[in-house]
Amino acid sequence: AGLQDPAQRAAAAMLLLDDLDNTPSEALVGAAIDGLAAEPGDPSTGPAADRLPMPIEARRAARYLTHHVQICAPAIRKALNDDNAQRRLLAAVVLTEALDRADGEAIGRVVSPHLEPNSISGDALLASRALLRAGPTAVRAAREMTDEPSALARLGELEAALTRGPPPHLERLAGPLPWQMPWVPQRLRGTVP
Fold it and tell me: Is the pTM for the entire model greater than 0.85?
């Protein structure tokens, strides 16, 4: 029988994604790819006090895919061509963890629009991290996609970081991905010693 309601299926999949030991089945990888596009305000995002700039479902999905990136890489590569911009961006960032330089050009094309000024909070930082991680081919591909001055300035900094090492203000890009860091719900912040 199984769950018939799509919202119930999505909620069940999100619970399964929390356990990184769950083997990446086709259905679970599909649910994780779908979860990358979770938006704030989706009915499945929980109470407003727990919302983050990146919805918890997207964090869970990205964390699971990052943990199993070698197995999930074909599905993640396919998501680079998705219609959803958030799914494409998060897929590109996750794919950098596969450390396959052959993905550099595709990653650069996907993240380039996120280097330009827009209304999406934090996307330029994620895009920069993906480019730094994916290497010179990704940075060149991103440069070919934009003529916006602030994006070009950021790409110049990334090119310099790739040749000389990141300056202090870019060192945070070499750290863990946002979904790899411990997370405490807002309602509990300040109450945990």
Answer: no
Q: What angle do CA 36, 65, 96 make, to 5 degrees?
A: 95
Between vectors from CA 20 to CA 15 and to CA 25, what angle results, nearest 5°? 80
Query: 191 CB contacts (<8 Å, ≥6 apart)?
Result: none
Amino acid at 119: S
- How do residues 36-74 score in pLDDT, each as one tens digit? 988 765 444 444 433 346 778 888 899 999 999 999 999
- pLDDT of 158-167, one tens digit each? 998 888 876 6
Return the structure tokens found at 186. Answer: 């807002």
Distance of CA 73 to the CA centre of its chain: 13
87, two tokens: 């799914």
